[in-house]
Amino acid sequence: WVNSRRLAFGGRGANPLASGGRGAKLVYERVPAHRVALQPTRHDGLVLADCLDIKDGPFRAYLAHELTKRADHRCASGLEEFRSHKRAVTREGQVRSGERHEKDDRHRVDDPRRWVLGWANERKIAALRDELAAMQADLAAVTTELTGLYTQRDSLQDRLQALARIEEYRSWADL
Predict the structure, then answer these.
(1) Are 99 and 113 a contacting pair, CB within 8 Å?
(2) Terminal alpha carbon distance of the chain
(3) Does the global pTM surpass 0.70?
(4) Is 4 within 8 Å of 32 (Cβ atoms)?
């Protein structure tokens, strides 16, 4: 988010990205200095925006307003409730926005390594450290196995060379 007073700098700072071709993507949105507060829409149940706490700061009002617009999905406890609302989300990560339904199972929804929201990231860091330790252990095991395979290959090459030297002799007498 870019404060209205800093928007000119944001545009200048982003423009070189277009010509640089570094593979980066930047999306920014102008946040007006003053905004008329609207009454939040009343919902008959829990919506996604209600599940998020917004930290105090200069963008708090803006974020709260955007969440009421963009995260107004009903937190459905089951598929029946999910189907009965135009905008809904399930605990398992299925999202309905009108006629569009989306379920992305490329990653587990309960995997803290994928979590983005929040200001307490100890669980995410711990999960990433656990994953790193497991990967380092796997790497050590593969390295040990690879060293053994190299030793085995060298031994087989030595035997092959010895057999090739024996092949040079045409008779037992020459040997």
Answers:
(1) no
(2) 85
(3) no
(4) yes
